[in-house]
Every structure is written in structure tokens, then in C-alpha cells.
Write a structure and sequence with these properties.
14 helices; alpha/beta; two-stranded antiparallel ribbon; about 15% strand
Length: about 375
């Protein structure tokens, strides 16, 4: 009989940063081993790796079998899922679908990326693979440049000020101060953001998520009894959606349709309304992306995402805290792993294991992971297991 439920039994992750002494495989094994130790009696039936550009960053593909062997899981099916920066959450979505269908009883998801071994221009080229090789890459438009154009259009069409645009990075860094696995643990001000070096006008350095290495993992079970008394978190809803591939192809560039559709579907599956959410991990690779995502998910009206952030609506101690461990800007953004980091952070919140970053006992947390400029969006909703 097909199952209809899935549970996260344990998670593991590395600190995000410059791991010069560790390989892509080292990071994946560190995170995967930690997740497996959290539920030692639940051996996974399948391993799914989320990764964006290991072929470019580490000259390595065939990650599924490679990571499985290093974790002592040889023999189980193992493969990689790629969806640009949404690779981690997309891999998780595939794993949950397999578990909920009854095809497997358990699954291990590992998101991993090694970015710092690349020179800055090489990393920029690798990230640009999220866009069209025939058009966007061909004319030399970097991923930051596309988001810069989007930010300029957003600011001018919606009357958003430079100070307001800085608000979400300020929240991220405030939350990152007490997050031990965060890449940057220092608070900043809006003035620091606006005075940082220019990357792609109007986006400045502190508007943009950093380059970093990291891995995160989650063990998913179909039968809660297999958790052997562990605190479990229920996967209540999950959806992946896509938009027109390139932002310039869309009728309305400020409408993050993939995010809106995925969020709506995941929340509908969970049977929840927005006020029920206790926290939200938002994909904010750039400040403008964070604002447009909040608006697409209905947390802010059009043009109000940055203003709501500046007003304190999304602070850690507010009714709707976002990016509780620093988000992409402060926790860091090792692209193929980011979605799984978000899921691990949701798990910590719902098991009251978030330490100084714990919000006021949330019953439900959602995560939001994007590939491209809202080209792929993966949203999951989690709740405390009864």
C-alpha cells in the first residue's frame, strides 16, 4: 500500500566557508555521516545528491555512486539531481516523492558544492550556467548582471529606495551572528550595504550571497517507528515549479510565478494558511530576489517586501521570522547544498534545537529554494510530528 507521509529523522551539515583542506567528497561524507549517526538504525534505501556544477568545480560527476561508496552504502541506488541553485531542495523533493509513494522506505539526501576552488571569474561563469548558453551567456551577461537589471527595474517601477533594498541583508547578518555554521557572523547596517563595492548596479557586494563551500544532509523516513524514538519532523507539503527560462522572456519580470505556484501548492498540500507559519527560510541570493520572493508568497504586497523588512516584520523575534540562521547572505550559499541547509535549519527549529536562533516554538516552517532567476522554485512545508 502506498504511503502518504514522509518524515525527516535527522540532519547533518558542515560550516559554510573556505574549506581549502577538504574535497567535494569530504564535505558530502561529513554531512551525510552526521545525518546517518542521528538515526543509526535507519539505513537508507536510496541516496540522492543535490549538486549544481561538480563537473566544473571539481572535475567530478557520477556523484551518487561516489558518495554512496564513501558512506559505506554501496549497493543502494544513488544518483544526482541538478536544478541550478535549487538542486538541493529539488533532490529532497524527489526523495520525498519516492518515500511517499512507497517505492522506498527511507532516503538520504546530500546537498554539496565546492565553489572556492574556482577563481572568481570561473565561479561567475559556472553560476551563469543557470541561464541560457545561446543567449544570456553568449552576450556575456553574468548572473549578477541579470539580477542587477532586475533590481534597477524593481526600484524604479515600485519606488524602492537604496536604503530599503538593504533591509533583507541586514536581517540575515543579524541572525547569522549566533549561527555557528554561518559563513559570516557579523551584524551590518543598511549604510554598510549601500557603501559596499559595486557588483552590478544597483547591487553592491552586501546585496549578494557569497561564494563558499559546504554540504548538508537529511534522512527521510516513511515509517515514523523507524526513527527509534527520535524527534521527527513531518514533511507536510512539497512542490517544484518552473517559470519562463530567462527573466527577459516574461511578461512581468517582477512576478516570481514559479515561487508563487510552488508555495501555493505546498501550503495547500499541508492544509495551512500563512498565519500558521512560524518561520520561513527564503532564497535571497540577491536582496531583490528575497524581496520579490516574499511578495510572490504573499507575505508582502507588491513593492513592499523591502519596506516590510525594514519595518521589522521579518526579524527573528517577529511573528514571521525569515532566514533564522542568516539566509543565503550570512549563512552562505554553496549553491547545490543551499536547499538542504534550509531544510536542516527548519528541522532544528521544529525540534527546538536551534539554540540562540530558536524562534518562539513554531509548529510549522517553510523553506524556499530557487534556481536561476525564479526559473525553478522548490518549496517545502514542515511540521512537528505528532
Amino acid at each position: 500500500m502506498a504511503r502518504s507521509k514522509a518524515y525527516v529523522a535527522s540532519v547533518g551539515f558542515t560550516k559554510v566557508g573556505d574549506h581549502w583542506e577538504k574535497s567535494l567528497l569530504d564535505l558530502a561524507v561529513e554531512a551525510g555521516s552526521s545525518a546517518l549517526k542521528g538515526a543509526p538504525k535507519a539505513k537508507p534505501d536510496v541516496l540522492i545528491v543535490g549538486n549544481m556544477f561538480s563537473a566544473v568545480g571539481a572535475s567530478q560527476e557520477h556523484l551518487g555512486a561516489m558518495v554512496a561508496g564513501a558512506l559505506g552504502l554501496t549497493g543502494i541506488p544513488a544518483f544526482k539531481v541538478e536544478a541550478a541553485c535549487a538542486s538541493g531542495a529539488s533532490a529532497f523533493n524527489v526523495a520525498c516523492s519516492l518515500v511517499k509513494s512507497g517505492s522506498v522506505g527511507s532516503a538520504l539526501v546530500v546537498g554539496v558544492e565546492k565553489m572556492r576552488d574556482l577563481e572568481p571569474e570561473e565561479a561567475s561563469q559556472a553560476l551563469a550556467m543557470a541561464e541560457s548558453a545561446e543567449y544570456t551567456q553568449f552576450v556575456g551577461a553574468s548572473f549578477a548582471a541579470l539580477n542587477g537589471l532586475l533590481a534597477r527595474y524593481y526600484m524604479e517601477s515600485e519606488g524602492v529606495s537604496r536604503d530599503e533594498l538593504s533591509s533583507i541583508p541586514v536581517i540575515d547578518h543579524a541572525n547569522g551572528v549566533t549561527a555557528e555554521h554561518a559563513q559570516f557572523r557579523k551584524a551590518i547596517t543598511a549604510d554598510v550595504v549601500s557603501r559596499s563595492s559595486m557588483v552590478a548596479d544597483p547591487l553592491r557586494l552586501f546585496d549578494c550571497a557569497p561564494v563558499g563551500d559546504g554540504a548538508a544532509a537529511a534522512l527521510i523516513l516513511g515509517d515514523p517507528k523507524a526513527g527509534a524514538g527520535k524527534k521527527l519532523v513531518g514533511v507536510l507539503g512539497g512542490a517544484v515549479s518552473t517559470n519562463e527560462f530567462s527573466v527577459y522572456e516574461r511578461k512581468d519580470m517582477l512576478d516570481f510565478r514559479a515561487t508563487r505556484d510552488a508555495f501555493g501548492s505546498a501550503m495547500s498540500q499541508a492544509g495551512l494558511s500563512l498565519p500558521k507559519l512560524g518561520a520561513l527560510e527564503v532564497h535571497d541570493a540577491f536582496s531583490v530576489v528575497g524581496a520579490l520572493s516574499l511578495e510572490a508568497m504573499g507575505l508582502s504586497k507588491r513593492g513592499e517586501g523591502c519596506r516590510d523588512a525594514k519595518a521589522g516584520k521579518f526579524d527573528l523575534r517577529s511573528d514571521m521570522p525569515i532566514n533564522t540562521f542568516g539566509g543565503l547572505k550570512a549563512r552562505g550559499h554553496p549553491v547545490g547544498a543551499t536547499g538542504v541547509y534550509q531544510i536542516a535549519e527548519a528541522f532544528l527549529q521544529l525540534t527546538d534545537a536551534a539554540g540562540k536562533n530558536q524562534v518562539d516554538r513554531p509548529d510549522y516552517v517553510a523553506t524556499h529554494n530557487i534556481g536561476g532567476v525564479d526559473t525553478t522554485a522548490a518549496v517545502h512545508v514542515f511540521g512537528r510530528a505528532s
